[in-house]
Amino acid sequence: MEQLCRNFLWGHQSGTRKLHLISWDTITQPLASGGLGVRRLRELNEAFLAKLCWGLLSDREALWSQVLIHKYEMAGASRLKFKATHQASWLWHAICDVWEKVVGGIGWSIGSGQQVKFWTDLWTASASPLLELASEEVPEEARNRCVDYYADRDRGWIWEYFQHILPMSSLLHIAAIPTPSDDRGADLPIWRLTSNGNFSIKSAYGLLTRDCTQEEKDIWRVVWKWKGPERVKTFLWLLSHGKLLTNEVRLRRNLAPSASCPLCQDHTESILHAIRDCPKVREMWKSLVPRTAWEQFFSHFGSMAEQHHETKEELRVWSGVCFSGSNGRMWKNISWLPPSNGWIALNTDGASKGNPGVAGAGGVIRDTKGRWLDGFVQNIGVATSFVAELWAIKGPTYPD
Ligand SMILES: [Zn+2]
């Protein structure tokens, strides 16, 4: 089936073969990673299975969950351990295989703290369980302790139990989480790969396939966010992969009699020659690019003369420079309005230095004349800016 997709993409007709300029591996990467976001069927199937895994965890009361849980005797077992027996159905085998791969996407939101394992589950903003971050071996008998063991209703987190073996970053992550308490209900599983904590096939698919660096993503964003016809975006995409079918490439593939540029006949038609350095093309650029920017524009990664084989990286940088538009920010005037008579106003804000980063929250209470009545500030630990805002709304927490 994937063969059919490939052929369609490159415009095959029966009896003809077209060049596949870009590998299937690359095409099946997300747009942000330089691909076309075409899904790989095997991984897509696994992502759908992951949805079943998630359902077993988050919707345990549903009839189908209950059937599977009791059939495979999971009722008493840890909620995060699925195991296939020999007689199990193919569906159960498939679920258990996928489970291993998606378990890293599951985290917990702490309520009572009675179901989540302090050392082995993912419940802080850290990417790995605390057990792996500890500087010393955690005693065997402590590993199964739940989060509520490490907090006290009145005193908050009991730091002396764990602060000597965890790095500062983890302690700050813990500080950002409200301490467990019975009246906050059960601990809830959250899907860590979406901002709202709900499972999505798309994010599971992302987890199952390779992801690229942020730096690369920024480059591809420039290409796909470019405002203009799809045809041009596709051209930019091929260009950024260094895969335009220039005469230089065609000669190498025995598709053209010579490598020279059809416009000027003087030079080899490499990619950079075709889009920038050919004298005919240059004239056009000069009418578009401001004179003051010519030098930078035409000298990026050297002149054409000594550079026949520009690398992908260089092309991406250049197209990034040329095609990035404004980032859409705009100015807006805002001001504070005092509350009407008889009312007081509470303004709060939370912020983090980096996202996530060291975070704080605070608020001021003012009267109708704008006079300061009271205020609070609070250190939070390390949290996302969103969490910091929530702490600010929650208001000060004083040990009593
Ligand atoms: Zn030329």
UniProtKB/TrEMBL annotation:
Domain (RNase H type-1): residue spans on this chain: 340-400
MF annotations from Gene Ontology: nucleic acid binding; RNA-DNA hybrid ribonuclease activity
Residue intervals passing through the bilayer: none
SUPFAM superfamilies: Ribonuclease H-like
Source domain of life: Eukaryota
PANTHER family the record matches: OS05G0353850 PROTEIN, POLYNUCLEOTIDYL TRANSFERASE, RIBONUCLEASE H-LIKE SUPERFAMILY PROTEIN
Species per Swiss-Prot/TrEMBL record: Erythroxylum novogranatense
Matches recorded under Pfam families: RVT_3 (PF13456), zf-RVT (PF13966)
Stated name of the protein: RNase H type-1 domain-containing protein
Gene3D superfamilies documented for this protein: Ribonuclease H-like superfamily/Ribonuclease H
